[in-house]
Amino acid sequence: MLFSPQMPLPLEPKREGRLDDFVIGPNRAAVDAVRAVVAEPDSNLFLRGPESSGKTFLLNGACLAAREAGMTAFYLGLKRVPEGGAGALDGLEGIDLVCVDDLDRVAGDDDWEEALFHLINRVRADHGRLVVSARENLGALPIRLPDLVSRLGWGLRAELLPLDDADKAEVMIRHARAQGADLPDDVVDYLLRRGSRDLSRLLDAADRLRQAAFTDKRRITVPLARQVLSGRSGADGT
To answer: Could you please report the per-residue DSSP string of 48-75?
Structure first.
C-alpha cells in the first residue's frame, strides 16, 4: 500500500515543533547531527537517548524541516503501532526523509527487523535520509538480524543527554507558551521541586495545570499547581 507523505495518518506525530524550538542544553552535537541528515542526501543517523530526552521532538522537527525545504518526510512512532504491524513500512519508496522512533519496541521481532532492513536498503537506493531512535545503544539492543545491525551502523550516531533543572524549566515554559499559556517562574520552580523528575510527566502536569486554570477561570499560581498535583482541581472533576 502506498502512503501519501502529506496525508494525515494515525502514525504521524500529533504535534510538530521546529528544531529551533528544541532546548539544546548539553545536546548540541545531537541536534547538529539531526540537521546534517536533513541537509544531506544518502545520510543515516542512529539517535540514542533515555526516556523523555527529546528523541520524538527531534524526529518530528526533522520531518517538519524537511517539508519546509520542499522535501517529503514520514514519521513512524513505534510506540503506537499495533503488534504485527510491520507492513506500515511498506510503500515508503521515494520519500526524502524517513524517521523511525522507538526502535526498542520492535527489536527482537523477526518481522519488524526484516522490514526495517529492507526499508533501509530502499532509502539508500533512493538516495534518501533515515533517522532511527532508541533508548539503548545500538550494541545493547536485542536485534537478531546481523545485517540490520550493520545497516543501522552505517551512518552517524548521536546521543541525547538528560537535561538539568534549568533546561527542564525552559522546556516547560516553551511548551506552555506554545499552548497559549504563561507559566510563572514560581510555578515552574514548584513543579520541579514537587513534581516528577521525568520531563514528559512534568509537561503533562503543566498541561493539566493549564486546563485547570481555564476550567476554573483562575490564574496559574502555586496554590493551583498544588491542587493539580494532589488531584483536587476542577479539571479532575472535583
So the answer is: E--TTSSHHHHHHHHHHHHHHTT--EEE
For domain 19-159, the CATH class is alpha beta
What is the distance between the alpha carbons of residues 129 and 131, in angstroms, rounded to a whole number? 7
Q: Residue 129 has which C-alpha cell?
A: 535520509
Query: Check: CATH 3.40.50.1970 for 165-236?
Result: no
Which pTM value belongs to this model?
0.83
Amino acid at 2: L
Contacts for 1 with CB less than 8 Å, ≥ 6 apart? 87, 90, 91
List the domain boundaries for the chain. Answer: 19-159, 165-236
Q: pLDDT by residue (tens digit) across 97-145?
A: 999 999 999 999 999 999 999 999 999 999 999 999 999 999 999 999 9
Which one, of 119, 138, 108, 171, lies nearest residue 47 by Cα? Answer: 138
